Amino acid sequence: MASMVMTSEGSPDVGRMSAGVTSDSRLIDREDSLGIAVLSSACVSAARRLIAGQVIEETDRLALERAAGLFRGALDGLRFIESNGKQGRPPSQLQYSGFAVQLLSENRKILSHGANGQSTGQDIAAELETWLHRIEAFASTGKESDPSGFADFFLALTELSRAEAGSTGDIASPAIPT
Amino acid sequence: MRTRAEVIRRSLLTRLAGLSEYINDLIAEPPRGRAGLQTAHRLLERYPGWVRQNADALWVRAPDDTARYAQLSVVLQDVVLKTILIEQWFGQSAALRIPLSMFHAVEASCEELALHGRRAVLAIASPDNFETFIRDLKPHLFSPLGAVPMPVDLPDDRFAMIHIPRLEGGEALWRPIALGHEIAHLAVLERNALSHFGLPHKFDWARFTGLSSGDTYQVYRQAESWVTELLCDAHMVRRFGPAAVASSAEFLDAIGGSDKWSFTHPPGLLRVKLMLRWLGNVNTPSLKPTVEPWEQASKAAITGPGNVVNLAAMLETLADDFIAVVSSWPTGRYDEGSRSFLISRLLADLEKGLPPKERYKDQQDQLISVNQEDLVNAGWAQRSLDSPWPTAKLVDKALDSLDFLISWTARGGDAETETASAPLVPSRGGILSRRALIGRLGPEGDLEIRPLLSGSVDIASVDIRLGRRFIVMQRTATASFRTLGLGAGLRSAQRLVEVGWNERFVLHPNELVLAGSMEYLDLPSDLAAEVVTRSSYGRLGLITATAIQVHPFYRGCLTLELLNLGEVPLELKPGERIAQLVFYRVDPPASEPMPKNYECPTGPEFTRPIRHAKEIEILSRED
């Protein structure tokens, strides 16, 4: 099923008095996507440091803490929807409100559950929670049992976010109708 | 072989060098009177160097090439996005076509909404969009890149950044959209209006069952976005009344948006329906035609995919909640009903081709001040009558005069006029004396000079003030211009400059510029006037007019030809009493208006082809 978001116009960076003429089919705002890419690329660097036999630096720890905040927000957003607005936080109160969408979108392969249209919100929340604990532990202990897997996950997230923020250098494609 | 990380690093450094040069070019010619842009430039000039520091630190600290590429490729892409931002908002000349009064109006509107100290950054953009940049510029430009913190010595100013279409940006009639809807976006954020609206409790979850978690999440985000837009619409209607509906509904229709919806914007039809509901009954007869076409159109049903129709229907049931939120904001509601008499007076002036005055007497003979909302509403009322006069220009002129008077009185100037109750004094001929002038300018008279400040009428003349728009001459590649049959070529040698009320315009020795009088004139059939340089200026070597004759029936501001014949540059300030008008009787009165080259000019006019086409043809013939 095509996602309803596919007629998104441009970026939530701007509030517009427009008719909402469709000009783009981005899942989330370009600047938000780049913000996520900055964070995730810093997580790549932290994990690669372990692979290189080094210890993580203070800047790595700070980046991991911010990445944990990103996942916490996505979880909050998901809980909000799953509870019909009774728990969690609404998207507008999250710094990167589109992050959950980016993870959940069915044509993305970031989360194993997110890629499966049949999975429930609880399945996805459980996977997000696992990742959150892993990032928090890495930030607090400086240790990660599978740094390669960790780096690969965030490298994929970096690439996904860059693509989301990127352009083909051509006129934007027409939106996919719902 | 170079690694991919090295290629990206080189690309990043090259782009930063180019961007730095571009920003230096922008800063080299700061736009006059636009303080917001000048402050923003101070942020921009620090940006490339800060990114460079980040890039260097990330390169050194990264454990390997994979990490280097991952981080620097993101930084490079971020620079591309920030360059787009700089081009779109600060590109050369982006703001020069927007009147300075609009910059002041944006800052004043922010103050009214308790968005204190916001600096206006206005730019021309796409013809089908007004848009507001809702992030804070400083943290947005200097968002963490992971290595170097934001510089501590950057200016703390906050901005109101609005993109305006070229056509609507220059016309005051569209102010409801920029000052109502767009600025409300900043208020929605600052005042946390979405939370006050309470969408989580009002969202009708039952309408959207059967969707996956991701799709439900997206529908909810869409609802938040639509609520934001509708809150802005509600504020616009509250602030500007019928003019808000007239301007936004016409704009939406013009860009084909009536039946359109998007992730961020609700269907145009829903917006018009709700705006009319929030507006309620229009009590001023002359304003009814401004909204009637949209009342008819709004009776159609909203169509589209199921979720869109559901969302629209849900929000329509919440109509009163939108107005409840914006009613708690500090801006007052525009009550057109209580301004009905005043609007009829403004309209009467617009119907005569006159820019409305800054004050009028009401039915109880009390002076009431005109405000921006009155002028814009009267403008829309006049527009609905298909007036032969350039309504938008006249409203713009009235707003510009109002802008001057606000600045004038704020600095201690007296806004009273001496003609308010002056009787008409019979005169037999010759030059009109002060008594005769005041009578002709009074309520029974037929001579109009607007604005007319206290002390302007002298013993046998009226002082006129320098406006703030100038047409300056610039060098061109054209060898020479023929004075007969001037074509478009001369336009390339002339450029419009607008300066702030607090700024100075420097006229260099032997320099010629065209300037406008601040006063808008309307001469009756039996009066003509001559423009004379005030003697104290003449002694400095300043000539203010070479085409000194003003004919009966002339209607508009005067174009002054300023020439500095002295040896030193002269600093001129808008609002200075620079010249005088000497009026005399025309006997017998002119029977019909002479054909005019300039129709209701409200500032200096670019040179146009000289009249008398037949004579030009004769003189141009070769023997």
| DSSP summary: helix tally of chain B | 22
Please state roughly what percent of the residues of chain B sit in beta strands, choosing from under 5%, 5-15%, 15-25%, 25-35%, 35-45% or over 45%.
5-15%
Find the count of extended strands of chain B (DSSP E, 2+ residues): 16
Supply Rg of chain A. 17 Å
| Name of the CATH homologous superfamily of the domain at 434-618 in chain B | Deoxyuridine triphosphatase (dUTPase)
Give the number of domains of chain A: 1
Spans of at least 5 consecutive residues with low confidence of chain A: 1-12, 19-25, 172-178
Structural class of chain A: mainly alpha
Uncertain residue segments of chain B: none
Average predicted local confidence, pLDDT of chain B: 90
Question: Can you describe what's shown?
Answer:
The complex is a heterodimer of chains A (178) and B (623). In chain A, 52% of the residues lie in helices and 2% in strands. By secondary structure, chain A is mainly α. Chain A is globular, with a radius of gyration of 17 Å. Chain A has helices spanning 30-51, 58-82, 99-104, 121-141, 147-165; one strand at residues 14-16. In chain A, α1 (30-51) packs across α2, α1 (30-51) runs antiparallel to α5 (147-165) and α2 (58-82) packs antiparallel against α4. Among the domains of chain B are: 1-170, no CATH class; 336-410, no CATH class; 434-618, Deoxyuridine 5'-Triphosphate Nucleotidohydrolase, Chain A (Distorted Sandwich). The N and C termini of chain B lie far apart (77 Å). In chain B, strands 6, 7, 8, 10, 11, 12, 13, 14 and 16 form a nine-stranded antiparallel sheet that branches. In chain B, strands 1-3-2 form a three-stranded mixed sheet, with helices on both faces. With 623 residues, chain B is of the alpha+beta class. Helices cover 43% and strands 15% of the residues of chain B. Chain B is built from 22 helices and 16 strands. At the A-B interface, β1, α1, α2, α3 and α5 of A face α4, β2, α8, α10 and α11 of B. β1 (14-16) of chain A pairs antiparallel with β2 (131-133) of chain B.
